[in-house]
Specification:
This protein has a single domain, classed as Aminopeptidase, CATH 3.40.630. Helices cover 31% and strands 31% of the residues. It contains three helices and five strands, in the order E-E-E-E-H-E-H-H. A five-stranded mixed sheet has the order 1-2-3-4-5. The model has no long low-confidence stretch (mean pLDDT 95). This is N-acetyltransferase. Pfam families: Acetyltransf_CG.
C-alpha cells in the first residue's frame, strides 16, 4: 500500500466523462458519469489497488457531488459505490434522483452496451 505524501487532488475531465483523483500527480482513481439534461448519471467508481484503504473513493465522490451541486445539476447513482455513499450522506438527498429502468436503458445506449 502506498502512503500519501501530499493532499489528493480531484479534477473533472469532461472529455473523458469522469472525475479523477490524483495523488502525487498520479491518477489513483476515478468516478465515471454521463450527463442527461440536468442530471449527472454516475455509473462506475474505482480506486487503484495501490491506493486502497486511504479513503480516496470518499474524497473523490464527495468532491464530485459537490461539483454537481455547484453546477445546479442533480445526481443519479447507478454506481453501487455512489449509491452506498449517498445512503450515508443525506446532505445530498435534495439533489438525488432515483435510478429507473428508463435511465438504465439510456445509459446502456450511451455506453454501447
Amino acid at each position: 500500500m502506498s502512503e500519501q505524501t501530499s493532499t489528493p487532488v480531484v479534477r473533472r475531465v469532461d472529455a473523458r466523462h469522469r472525475y479523477e483523483i490524483l495523488v502525487d500527480e498520479q491518477r489513483a482513481g476515478l468516478t465515471a458519469y454521463r450527463d442527461r439534461e440536468d442530471r449527472r448519471v454516475f455509473f462506475h467508481t474505482e480506486v487503484d489497488d495501490a491506493y486502497a484503504g486511504q479513503g480516496l473513493a470518499s474524497i473523490l465522490v464527495t468532491q464530485a457531488l459537490d461539483d454537481v451541486r455547484a453546477a445546479g445539476m442533480r445526481i443519479v447513482p447507478v454506481c453501487p459505490y455512489v449509491a452506498k455513499f449517498l445512503k450515508k450522506h443525506e446532505e445530498y438527498a435534495d439533489i438525488t434522483d432515483p435510478v429507473t429502468p428508463e435511465v438504465l436503458s439510456w445509459l446502456d445506449a450511451q455506453l454501447g452496451r
